[in-house]
Amino acid sequence: MSSIYPVSLLDEVEIQSGRPPILRTEITSDAPRWTAEHREALRAVVAEHGCVLIRGLGLRDVAGASAVFEQLSTRLMAEREAFAPRRTYADGVYSSAQWPPNQPMCMHHEQSYALEVPGLMLFACLTAPHQGGATGVADAATVLDELPTALTERFEREGWLLTRSYNDEIGSSLIEAFGTDERGAVESYCRANAIEFAWQPDGALRTRQRRNAVMRHPVNGRRCWFNQVAFLNEWTLAPEVREYLVEVYGADGLPFNTRFGSGDPIGEDVVQLLNKIYETNTAREPWQTGDLMIVDNLRTAHSREPFEGPRDVLVAMADPVRLSDCSPTFEVTTR
């Protein structure tokens, strides 16, 4: 099949302020074959712009979307340490995180709390919501440049700390996060991935893991703000949700929270500043059924806005990258 597109596709990409790069096409059938033909050109577009929304592929079902994901990636990853449940459709193909539709999922880099992270995030919209629900994107290097120097220097020195408390009532269960609830297997995973752990008298698990907050992109060398400091912090929660969780679980038993790497609390003012800078630099485009979005997870943060009506967006994490290969500001050691 011949292509009407240039090898790079770069000249076909629409660039507009406040919107992600968009590439329009009209595929009446066989989106996986089209994707295979344009794989390297599409990856070149993402290398240039950090992400791209492809409109017109006509993706309508799990099989078609999964085949497109396979064509685009070098390897699909199994999710570990999930913070919210997902439905698994196929190996490496998931639903969006099950997060309340009326609450935003703030900007973050997927699995930035892990030692091996997705280099690419792949999204396929099978059903667009009636209103809202866009997957926003923000350039991590720009966000880093706009943060106060004193704040970023502290995070570079100390990193950030993620604390989690697993229970059977809210957030991910042990099986959803670790693939097992067998204590020995969970402990082995934690030791191998530099996660401190403590079992509570009631059987609940609490963990702590210190990670780098700033990294260098392994390809272009740009310094990026790469973490989930704001998204997983208590001050990003809606006030009524935070108050409820603190009342039920206590300030030290929240399902997840973030701190400075030293263990000091991160103030509400810092979280508000982070989210404000993210919002200033957010590009968004409402989903249309059939859309595909490819995101460089290392240089581009993403979010999910509140929505109304059915929303079915498939997700794949692909092309794993070891954070030790991204010029960390301090070494994370495993046991």
From TrEMBL:
Record keywords: Antibiotic biosynthesis, Dioxygenase, Iron, Oxidoreductase
Cofactor(s) essential for the protein: Fe(2+)
Residue span, TauD/TfdA-like domain: 30-316
Claim: Iron is one of the keywords in the record: yes
GO molecular function: dioxygenase activity
Record carries keyword Iron: yes
EC numbers on record: 1.14.11.-
A Pfam family of this chain: TauD
Family annotation (Gene3D superfamilies): Clavaminate synthase-like
InterPro entries: AlphaKG_dependent_hydroxylases, TauD-like_sf, TauD/TfdA-like
Name listed for the protein in its UniProt record: TauD/TfdA family dioxygenase
Source species: Streptomyces pratens
Source organism phylogeny: Bacteria, Bacillati, Actinomycetota, Actinomycetes, Kitasatosporales
